[in-house]
Amino acid sequence: MSAATARRRTAIAGVSLSDCGRLDEATPYALHAQAARRALADSGLDRSVIDGFASAGLGTLAPAEVAEYLGLRPTWVDSTSVGGSTWEVMAAHAADAIAAGHARAVLLAYGSTARADVRAGRRTGTLSFGTRGPLQFEAPYGHTLVAKYAMAARRHMHRYGTTLEQLAEVAVQARANAAANPEAMFRTPVTVDEVLSGPMIADPFTKLHCCLRSDGGAAVLLVAEELVRDCRTAPVWVLGTGEHVSHTTMSEWPDFTVSPAAVSGRLAFERAGVRPQEIDFAEIYDAFTYMTLVTLEDLGFCGKGEGGAFVEQGRLLVRGGRLPVNTDGGGLSAQHPGMRGLFLLVEAVRQLRGEAGERQVLATDGELPRLAVASGTGGWFCSSGTLVLGR
Fold first, then answer.
1. CA–CA separation, 326 vs 331, rounded Å?
2. pTM of the model
3. Mind telling me which PANTHER family this protein's record contains (predicted)?
């Protein structure tokens, strides 16, 4: 590897969502393609520059099947599948490949009809991870994915005094952010009382503590720095990345109140050379309200056990929040078609470019934000990928 190649930086040059929400007639392949076309158009580059492709969750030979559908013949591929954090981990791998000279332009694409499939009876509403390997020892007890998160939330409440009202604040503020997002699925404001009085899903989570189910897709194009001059958009640079896998069975999780973001976040910040206090906003995987709260702690935005107090008083709001979080409304209110980590990157890039419209975040000096963090979570806090992005 030459010294010039070793110093090669990676930028995100194109981002887009496919149509999202209620898409009863769409197919996952079509959503992949729609998002990919839009992201390429956003970058202003020709599809011929794409020599890397990453995807997961669709097809027998992912990502080969999806690449074939898109008409791509990549010389670098990644099919890492670690749940919702897949896309942050893939973006980290892509940045490494670009730095090493193994690729110049890597496309990440995702599409899912999770909502339409349940509606049509093609699958059930309960996601099963099977009973092979270590999971066989937990399967007889029958606890679902949401129940595992609920158990972890209860542990945090027991140890640190976190309240149901504080967890509900996460959902309330996510919905307030979604109100300014025309692409969000749910935009009507909700109150803490409405969150607490909803149907119980898994104690302590009522319905609004849990992410919605939607259809939709997203795509992100990462490029080597020499391609930036040919792009239509201003570059958003990948400054630092981190990834971590901690467990698959609850019995192997050392502490229910600590997520793998404690490791992936530390690595990402160290490699970027920035501190949490310098971040202007955060996009955090929020399948459940507790996920947002504990990830904020583990990324270093507040101390361990202080997440409940941190999320109070509107601190996560786009308007007036100390640290705007999930500025599009997140998985709790905007859209959640499955492995949502790629949507975090799309929103982070739009914010850094100043393209977020009514929900645009501003830095403390009134200028556009300069630094963002996107942190995805997979499984039941089984894996984490974190990226620090800057313009």
1. 8
2. 0.96
3. ACETYL-COA C-ACETYLTRANSFERASE, NON-SPECIFIC LIPID-TRANSFER PROTEIN-LIKE 2
